[in-house]
Amino acid sequence: MADTDIICYCSNVTKGRIIEAILNGAETLDDIRRMTNACTVGNCKELSPRKRCCSPDIQALLNENSM
User: How far apart are CA 47 and CA 23, in angstroms?
Assistant: First the structure.
């Protein structure tokens, strides 16, 4: 997955922005929400081509990139 790929469709947040937030200290989904506005609007299920919430994808990025 490229850094330019959108993870959160309702807030138009890319993988790169989420990784940047993690590198800047985000450790939880709440941190990601505060730092990027991802997972805050609540209509990813309608906008995402996968038809599901983005929070599992964000959590996976947190797990993969935790320092």
Answer: 27
DSSP secondary structure of 23-59: HTT--SHHHHHHHH-TT-S--HHHHSTT-S-SHHHHH
Selection from 13, 27, 25 nearest residue 63 by Cα: 27
pTM above 0.70, yes or no: yes
pLDDT at residue number 4: 96
pLDDT over threshold 70, residue 67: no
For residue 52, the tally of other CB atoms under 10 A from its CB is 11
